[in-house]
Amino acid sequence: MSKSTLLNRLALASLVANVGLVVTGAAVRLTGSGLGCPTWPRCTDASYTTTRAMGVHGVIEFGNRLLGIALGLIALATFIAALLQKPRRRSLVLLSLAAGLGIPGQGVIGGITVLTDLNPWVVGLHFLLSMALIAVTWALWQRTREGDAPVRRLVARPLRHLAALTALVSSAVIMVGVIVTGSGPHAGDENAKRNGLDPATISQAHADLVFLLIGLSVALWFALRAVHAPAPAIRAAALFVAVELSQGLIGFVQYFTHLPVILVAAHMLGACLVWVATLNVLWRLRDRPAGSAPGDASTAGLPRADNPVPTSVA
Questions:
Q1: Does residue 302 register a pLDDT over 80?
Q2: Which residues have a Cβ under 8 Å from the Cβ of 209 and sit 6 or more positions away?
Q3: Closest by Cα among 239, 225, 228 to 308
Q4: Using CA atoms, how far apart are residues 60 and 56, in angstroms rounded to an integer?
Q5: How does pLDDT run across 2-29, given as a tens digit for each residue?
Q6: Residues 247, 8: contact at Cβ < 8 Å?
Q7: 153 - beta bridge partners?
Q8: Per-residue b or e along 66-97, where b marks 16 or more CB atoms closer than 10 Å to that residue's CB
Q9: What is the pTM for the complete model shown?
Q10: Within a 10 A sphere around the Cβ of 184, how many other Cβ atoms?
Q11: 287: which DSSP letter?
């Protein structure tokens, strides 16, 4: 296996592991195991690991901490692989470093979460950092699959602006979803406080943003088809709409069935998939051919980064 192939697989593993950390974190909260390990960095005052007396909640919480360690090891291996790749690519080194530095950051926020008895705002910050790490590891994975030539824009500026607005609304949906979670019943422990906001009001604001997001993403899909944008961009927009609709369906069903645990867990996974689909759309509106400089033979004759290719112009 070549070093570039190894780096690509490690980057993908890092992305998957970060999504997995969100899902296992949801399992901790939904099973009431948020204080299964009641202190940090130890699991108990006398032990770094769970004990039999702590029961299944201790096992679940400690298991989530172990996944965080595994994620750190994957990030370290990815960083080393980026350093050893020949020729060394600065962008891959920096992205892998950012992904690695986020892991201890997650650990610290996780510790603060425990020490503040599952403060919902800190729990929300924990989730949002995961979203940031998913974005970084997604970018790292994609960069391992392309060259270092200047970026080519594949669609005209108005469509790029529409895509950016759609991504901004997608981010808002996720952030308001975090606030909804902080107002709901699944706190991670029966004695944990909620954020004090009215769940119905916050849920309505969240739903309104979801409708706006779906409208924008459908408009983006139609617009890309209308200008005969490259097929990968159209497929990415269609996939984005499909993921949103699935996530929206889960969200409505969970709300009207009073938040059953299995649907809440599926909704957490869906939030990650919506975010990945958002990033995928943005990525498919540009590409980076092989080459390292504007004057390379491999990039000669290609449109410059601030101009779209002719087939994408309306």
A1: no
A2: 169, 172, 173, 176
A3: 228
A4: 6
A5: 777 899 999 999 999 999 999 988 888 8
A6: no
A7: 286, 308
A8: ebbeebbebbebbbebbeebeeebeebeebbb
A9: 0.88
A10: 19
A11: E
